[in-house]
Design brief:
This protein has 153 residues and is an alpha/beta fold. The chain is built from 5 helices and 5 strands. The termini are far apart. A 5-stranded mixed β-sheet has the order 2-1-3-4-5, sandwiched between helices. A hairpin with a 2-residue loop joins strand 1 and strand 2.
Length: 153
Amino acid sequence: MLRHMTDEDFMRRAIDLARAHLGRTGENPCVGCVIVKDGEVVGEGVTGEGGRPHGEEQALRAAGAAARGATAYVTLEPCARRSAGGRSCSELLVTAGVARVVIAASDSSVFAGGEGCLRLRNAGIETYQGLIEAEAKALYAAYRPAKTLESRR
């Protein structure tokens, strides 16, 4: 009999994706994202070499239309704005129509800082933060979040 996958299982997969790319994303944190619909993974992504594209962006691209109504498991709070401009990950998740976002760790950066979660909630997306937080935080021990917009331009 197949075992039913849990939120923890999917978040551990996102953490594994991020862990495999540590040290390859420049100043940006390495974020893993897994998108799940009806118990099946429909998209995965991790922050690209040098910090672009972001993990959520890649996972949404892989999921395509299947992201609508799905759950996104993200190792770090989705950004609310981008240092180089363009659409933020929280905006992309809203536009894709995900129903739920599960986040492991918060991001105190000026580019997230709770605003990513707020955007998701304001769009009616169920948002949960803190799942397997200690494991995810270990990924970001060397990450120094930007405290001002100028510090990352």
